[in-house]
Design brief:
This protein is mainly alpha-helical. It has a domain of about 180 residues. About 75% of the residues lie in helices and about 0% in strands. Helix 3 crosses helix 20, helix 5 runs antiparallel to helix 6 and helix 7 packs antiparallel against helix 19. This is Transporter. Keywords: Membrane, Transmembrane, Transmembrane helix.
């Protein structure tokens, strides 16, 4: 089907290029995104009032879409505050600390645990569980908070999510679009996921250690809440108020709290909870832990302290998400949000601005195996720019089917390649708002995390695409 691109498509693409350029230059992109929303609004509605209203409405849309993530991060931070205050966190991580004795061991240990946890119940809940427990240990042995965020992000939202071998949400979408069994896509993705994962994580770790030696490393810390500037401050003060609970109580709670989260994991597997449902279970458990521990540690002011900890958590959550909402608002316009906000002004048969651009690219390149691999990667990456990673992977499957039929290349390999590219870009390693769970738990800027991930992920995609040439 021929895709008819309009001025709206070209303006959106131009602003994507501007945003990427500003990110590379380490400049804030909020104003660029607002200008992009305003210009798209004028093109869509033809009126200044419609454009101005579209700016506000797009912010509301983005806030609604991100609210679940804001809530889980805020609640986990609130719970972590009381655990650190009482010294429970210190007691809880002490058995693990003996194994994470260096920055390198902390990086790879956190990453591998994150990958395994993400296979079973996806990365966002895994970030909350792994980060809250292991981050203080990592900081103590010298791994920067941004390094810990990179490990959780690359292994969870990158390696685990791009393969998705347990829940199988991603390969199901791409396989259906390509018209092949899910098992073929999963089998074809194994070497690609391994190559992408190894190249990206090794490159990221090497670049981190290199910059630390040179003294050019920037941790990009953001305030945890009023009166504190970093996770190190929290970790260093752990145990200062541990006398509010007896040593026996701390030990029991240090055992009970991980068991409660393990029970969440078991429930996710037994009840087949995914995504938002899994996150809600973790969030509800964290609230109950917060309440019980606060009432135990503040017997006289427990009711007021519960509210105080929640306020601290929400202050942190909205500080982190404040600069992200305008940027997310722009990129959400690349999918169904555009029609929701501005009406049906895109051409007949359009599947959203981003998907239209990806389809148009596929229709205007030569048909051969090598170009098919490059096109699958580029199309997957483009469709991932909406920050979902999943909205465009069906298109990746369709394009793989097109190139496979025309060139007799492996449809399964091309499908898996597009899936890997879409999820590594949009699932949470390059697009700033998709990075928020890991960035927020570690108290670092999602924009700095995106910049740190950019070169390793691009190198990984290049090597993986080259490898795909020999597999198709």
């Amino acid at each position: 089907m021929l895709i008819h691109l309009t001025a709206i498509h070209y303006v959106y693409l131009a602003f994507i290029a501007l945003i990427i350029g500003f990110m590379i230059k380490r400049r804030d992109t909020t104003m660029i995104c607002v200008a992009g929303i305003a210009l798209l609004g004028i093109l869509a509605t033809g009126t200044l009032s419609g454009s101005i209203s579209g700016i506000f409405n797009s912010f509301i849309y983005a806030a609604k879409e991100l609210m679940g993530t804001i809530m889980i991060i805020s609640i986990i931070v609130a719970m972590s505050r009381v655990l650190i205050y009482t010294g429970i966190n210190e007691t809880m991580v002490s058995p693990i600390a003996r194994y994470l004795r260096s920055p390198g061991m902390a990086f790879w240990g956190i990453g591998l645990l994150m990958m395994v946890a993400s296979w079973f119940f996806w990365p966002s809940p895994a970030v909350a569980l792994i980060g809250a427990v292991l981050l203080p240990v990592a900081v103590r042995v010298g791994l920067p908070a941004l390094g810990a965020a990179m490990a959780m992000n690359l292994f969870g939202h990158g390696i685990a999510l791009s393969g998705d071998y347990i829940i199988q949400g991603a390969p199901k979408l791409t396989a259906d679009a390509a018209g092949i069994p899910v098992s073929q896509v999963m089998e074809a993705s194994v070497p690609l996921v391994i190559i992408m994962g190894v190249v990206t994580t090794v490159t990221a770790f090497w670049m981190m250690r290199r910059d630390q030696r040179r003294g050019t490393w920037r941790d990009g810390l953001m305030p945890m809440a009023e009166g504190s500037n970093a996770w190190e401050d929290k970790a260093s003060s752990a145990g200062q108020s541990s006398s509010v609970l007896s040593q026996r109580a701390r030990r029991w709670l240090a055992v009970l709290i991980p068991l409660l989260f393990l029970a969440d994991v078991a429930a996710m597997l037994l009840l087949k909870l995914q995504g938002g449902d899994a996150t809600a279970l973790v969030g509800g458990t964290a609230v109950l832990i917060l309440i019980v521990v606060t009432l135990m540690s503040h017997p006289e002011q427990g009711l007021e302290k519960v509210t105080s900890y929640l306020i601290d958590g929400f202050v942190f959550g909205f500080k982190i998400f404040g600069p992200v909402i305008p940027i997310a608002a722009f990129f959400y316009l690349g999918d169904s949000a555009f029609t929701d906000l501005f009406g049906k002004v895109l051409p007949e048969g359009s599947h959203g601005i981003v998907n239209d651009l990806g389809a148009a690219l596929a229709m205007n390149v030569p048909l051969n195996g090598a170009v098919g691999a490059v096109t699958s990667t580029v199309t997957g990456a483009i469709t991932g720019l909406d920050g979902s990673g999943f909205s465009g992977i069906s298109l990746a499957g369709s394009i793989a089917q097109l190139f496979g039929a025309a060139t007799h290349a492996s449809v399964a390999t091309l499908t898996a390649l597009g899936q890997v590219a879409a999820i590594w870009v949009g699932g949470g390693t390059l697009v700033p708002w998709a990075l928020i769970p890991a960035a927020a738990i570690c108290g670092v800027s999602p924009f700095e995390l995106a910049r740190r991930n950019l070169k390793p992920v691009l190198i990984g995609l290049t090597v993986t695409t080259l490898a795909a040439f020999f597999l198709i």
